[in-house]
Amino acid sequence: MNRGPSLASLRQPLRPAAPAGTVTAVLGPTNTGKTHLAVERLCGHASGMIGFPLRLLAREVYDKVCALKGAANVALITGEEKIVPPGARWFLCTVEAMPVEREVSFVAIDEGQVAADPERGHVFTDRLLHARGYAETMILGSETLRPLIRKLIPEAEIITRPRFSTLSYAGAKKLSRLPRRSAIVAFTAAEVYALAEMLRRQKGGAAVVMGSLSPRTRNAQVAMYQSGEVDYLVATDAIGMGLNMDIAHVAFASLGKFDGRRQRRLMLSEMAQIAGRAGRYQKDGTFGTVQLGTAEAASFTPEEIEGLQEHRFEALEQLVWRNTDLDFGSLPRLIAALDQRPSRPELQRGDDAIDMAVLKRLAGEPWVMERAPGPRGVSRLWNACGLPDYRKTGAEQHARLVARVFRHLSEPGGKLPETWIASELAHLDRMSGDVETLADRIAGARTWTYIAHRPDWLADAPLWAERTRAVEDRLSDALHTALTQRFVDRRTAVLLRDLKARGQDQRVEIDPDGAVAVEGEVIGTLDGFRFTADASARAGEQRLLLAAAERHLVRELARRAALLAAAADTEFRLDFTGPMPPRLLWNGARVASLRKGRDAMTPRIELDRALASLAPDDRRRIQVRLAAWFEASLARELGPLVRLGALHAALSPVARGLIVRLVETLGALPRSDLGDVVAALPRADRGALVAAGVRLGVVHVFVAGLLRPEATRWRLALWAVANDIAALPALPPPGRVSLPVDAAAPPGFIEAAGFWRIGDEAVRIDMVDRLARAIHGRRDGRAPFIPDPNWAASAGLSRDGLARLMRALGYRLQLVDGAAHFAWRGHRRPAPPPESAGEAGAPAASPFAILAGVSFGAGGTRADTTRKGR
Fold first, then answer.
1. Does this model's pTM top 0.70?
2. Average pLDDT over residues 34-38
3. HEC states along 748-762?
4. E strands in 608-714
5. How many other C-beta atoms are found inside a 10 Å radius of the C-beta of residue 376?
6. How many whole angstroms separate alpha carbon 547 and alpha carbon 495?
């Protein structure tokens, strides 16, 4: 029979054979250095053991002691992790996992006030009363323990340690007004997630700490906060147990919680444990509440505020106790021993913990009674009931898992089947899913990690310990990533930190594709001088992105300004696509646009608004460089027109007037608009104009060299700027000598493009002049003649269109023996071209309507049987 110490021997050391050592109770509020003192005392003894309330805290101190004593001399024992070198002398454990049978010089119990907790308190009470070092025992905890220690452990010396820093009340604050390095405490996972989401939107994100997270995930989240990657922490009351972080302010989202039985207000000591996380060592801290939306904030009473600031709390009256002197003779006797009540008023039997609740459920199963007939079977059942309910499924569902474990343990061989464990781990070893799903899988993995550290349950416990740890680690990393993705907007966090870091250089990178990153977070793209905020940014984030760009891109923009001022002509071009006005591009980036100037050939160059942040000298140099490029490009693309202007002073007034009008109209004028100007030109001026590229055509006076595609693009762009045209139709395709007339085109577009409108078609003016001269050479006075069949093809016109063109040139249609002939009307100048509306309404008997049925073939071959006279 395995029997622990009796109630009468509560004050006896753990091992009666060991020499009695001193017992010291170090009491005080948080931030008094109690744990640090215990670690120092541990390292000062030849051997020692500390029991912590959290696996995370045990691991943290284990790493510190390993650095001091060497990993070969230090052990870590928790429910889910056992690192016990053969020569280990210093043990860091969770309270539940302390190897109390081992004799050591020094023993310490951290956070002793947990002995009043209904769920775990009985374990802490047992360690407070029985766990002793043969040289020294130290109990760490709150001042609330003082009366009970005096009664239960009268030999203990009580030392009170004052808090190193001041804790003061800061009132209620809105979430958006919380200071940096704040921890916001809530008491449900839903509240934690909601607060973290709000902080992501307003502050760039928050780290999340909850008791349900694995230690690896909690470590990663805490590290993210400690490094300053985020300035806010959202947590449950799990942060109240020994987690040492750089917290300046603790804000309570509520002051009540569900304790497993009922919803209740926090006790003052619980408030103090949480609020005391604010301020570390000699750095003062504050606490308060957070105002959420329009809801009324939770508020402290004046008495609570005074108690928290002065560290005065109501003393504990009882500790939770459970009998450790167990009788494994049978299940009823074990349950009776566990149900035993303490005989001292300072102790109270707590409600059934999960292991006791599971035991009572399984005790009613006939097959369990059959498989636990004696002390060995009952002891094995009780050990199985000790399997923690990491998933918090409740006694009913957890009992099913424990029952399956016990069924296997009670079979011949007494080991869990490896196929079962492998299949369960395979089901858990999946990294997909949301935060809640991953957290649930981690809880499942922790269950198997605990099982894997029971060598009497497995045939190859070290193998399964390694495999379960690997699964838990992968899930923990995935959960940390999921939490970070969901609750941390790294870019906003970087930008907010950046706005506060005046005078400090931040790492700014600009990729070849223009992506701008501050401290590794992309904030937008820089195209030339134009910064565009990341399209995925929320509306409220745009201001931060623009402010960051304005701050960090000053040097880069100045550098680019210098490059632009010294750029070669090949790096610039004029962009005619899209809405007007045309844009001047430098290496494909917009830097300026053309605006209406003194005349069409001298537009004003207006720098883009993106260059407004440049220094005045940089803007002036850019303006000069762009003006020089534009002048050189104008001379290259519209050279004949530029050179024509240079002849202005050497010609007669008549010729000068003609040049002025040609320049104003960008190189093309109808002769009908000039009256007798051409006839009045002196012979010398005619020769000079022709030598300069001016063609004195039959219908137009124009500069033939300006009808090339690129020159046409430039002329149309300048025409649009001079006439305030908002948008241009598609430019004439290169090589086209005719095109359909677009009714939606701005007035004057066809003419500015160098075409002559003939009804609903337009012909390029040089082709009109060539055709007019060819027709003139074909006719013989007023005698009718047959048109050349190639004329329509060369002008890109239909037969109907050719007829309209010839009519516009002063010819009339006649049918001779069914063949189309034309005769000169005798006009001195060609008649204006007919409007398309007039042609559309031509009567059925009109010669133009008859053209569809006749041909222009040589010899007058009829295309139909209709015969008309002259």
1. no
2. 91
3. CHHHHCCEEEEECEE
4. 668-670, 694-696, 700-703
5. 12
6. 9
